[in-house]
Amino acid sequence: MQSLDDNVIATDSPKYPGAVERFNRSAALAKKHSAEINIKYAELENYIKHTQAHESMIMKRAYEFVDWYVQTVQLAESSVCRKGCSHCCHNPTTVLDIEARYISNRTGIPLSAVANASIDKSGPCVFLKHNQCSVYKYRPMVCRTFFAFDDPSECVDSHNDHIITQLDQIGPAQAVMLLLIKKLGHLQFLDIREWFYEKK
Ligand code: SF4
To answer: Which region holds residue 91: left if phi is over 0, alpha if psi is between -120 and 50, else beta?
Structure first.
């Protein structure tokens, strides 16, 4: 399983001094806690493989593990992400159907999935209210694993190449997604704006 410490960056960003140091701080913690991380991951893997629980319970356990990982390697503390900043919530946000159902089940907000290429996926997320996530406790994996280490302004455009973590760079989180896909069968990815399409 690839981990954050496989992504240690050697040279600093000339535009944002300190950014690499911040990222590497968390990568070093991932290395330091790798044994514990592997044990917790193996426990979750065993649970997902064998449980007969409802998918929302499985999702809860999966999110708890990823939140624990994020906390253990102190991604929030190392990053420049701060409450009230919502730049990343204007970027495309790809979500699995089980995650969309989890939000819907936990909040009572109905799903209204429409796969629609014309929906603007770079506008604000449907759950962004007053610059804060209104479904924070139930937010999807991509949101739980996105952190910036250089400057929040770089997150305005999802095409900017800057120092961030995202789902596919966080090995344990990506591995959990693969476990879920294997367990729960055929799954569909859509943008969060498509899962919760709001007719204007
Ligand atoms: S679900 Fe929440 S954290 Fe994720 S993009 Fe939407 S508002 Fe932002």
So the answer is: beta
Per DSSP, 110 falls in state: P
Residue 16's contacts (CB-CB under 8 Å, 6 or more residues apart) are 149, 150, 151, 163
In a domain, 48, yes or no: yes
User: What residue's CA is closest to ligand 1, atom 4?
Assistant: 143
Q: What is the dihedral of CA 134, 135, 139, 145, to 10 degrees?
A: 30
| pLDDT: which is higher, 51 or 8 | 51
For residue 32, how far is its CA from the centre of ligand 1 (angstroms)?
30
Q: Is residue 181 part of a domain?
A: yes
Is pLDDT of 187 > 90? no
Split into its structural domains, the chain has a count of 1
Entry pTM: 0.92
